[in-house]
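2024-03-11 09:14:02 INFO receiving multi-entity request
2024-03-11 09:14:02 INFO entity count = four
2024-03-11 09:14:03 INFO echoing inputs for audit
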Amino acid sequence: MSMVLLGFSMSPLSNGEGVGKYVARSLEIVDKSGVDYRLNPMGTILEGDWNDVFGVVKQCFERMKKDCNRISCSIKVDYRKGAKGRLHAKVMSVEKRLGKKLRT
Amino acid sequence: MSMVLLGFSMSPLSNGEGVGKYVARSLEIVDKSGVDYRLNPMGTILEGDWNDVFGVVKQCFERMKKDCNRISCSIKVDYRKGAKGRLHAKVMSVEKRLGKKLRT
Amino acid sequence: MSMVLLGFSMSPLSNGEGVGKYVARSLEIVDKSGVDYRLNPMGTILEGDWNDVFGVVKQCFERMKKDCNRISCSIKVDYRKGAKGRLHAKVMSVEKRLGKKLRT
Amino acid sequence: MSMVLLGFSMSPLSNGEGVGKYVARSLEIVDKSGVDYRLNPMGTILEGDWNDVFGVVKQCFERMKKDCNRISCSIKVDYRKGAKGRLHAKVMSVEKRLGKKLRT
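2024-03-11 09:21:47 INFO inference complete, emitting structure
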């Protein structure tokens, strides 16, 4: 069991410049997965065990490849031993250090 | 003039596992830059002209290298012709397609 | 079965600025995995089925977390329906278009 | 003056699944730039001063946006104080540690 943060963005290259339809489908999968997440303007961040978060990414991929011939996916993983609840804590920690609210 | 979204995360590899101090300094620079941004648990997203957003990233790097011997920085750029205000619009667009609020 | 290219780089943030020892261990795992790969100055590119290539990344992670308290990992996946042998073909294809050898 | 390694990949999302034509144009710019580089199956790695390497990326972007309405670009920067010639040295260093040739 290894808790990680995993940020990812996944888009077709083959289906034109508007990819919102495909992103929405992925978010439907993410939202129903039971894995905690946050959506931002460039991607989605998951927090959970390595197998669970990569499992969600794979589900999104399997759905997208049904009608997309080329797909690009960027993933970033941040592991810190023993850390949990970082989806909440990291932004607050930066704000606390600076003593002010930031745009989130 | 090319409006882009630029997401980035920048950390020292040389200064131990807790990098919050360095991230906070970067956010101080971002927050004062005048460039619109959103902070998330794995990085910061800027919206602006190519030169302006890369200028902010460079300022963060210049500050960090004063006391960090090794630095890793990931950057992702998303350009869409004629698009503006995507820092606000992209998340709402996904929520609208799905007809529900997502975690942000 | 989905053949993909997967490029990744994985480093500890917690173990000082020289990370060669940890990278070498990962390459030992990659080289013995049976998955086709190419090492470059910033990472390693694997070609294979989704499950196989992500399995190799997970093995590298499991090894690294034995003695690294914080780990950062960037992954990029490029899927193209029906494509194989892209580890060889992509560089040659660019050279062919330009009609000259490039630095590789 | 800050010598860095910069790896990048830049593709249109708006111009269909085959992006070789656009990649080839970028490599023409890279190859003529005078900046040292290595092409690999998923991107190009530049070595040089921060301003020079980001200047090359910007030139590639300016060219691509002439006929691509949506562009995605991933960049990774690795800075290590005082280090040079890493385009050559990093792969050899891993091979030396393992005492064998790897696939490159």
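2024-03-11 09:21:48 INFO post-check: The mean pLDDT of chain C is 96.
2024-03-11 09:21:48 INFO post-check: The longest helix of chain C spans residues 50-64.
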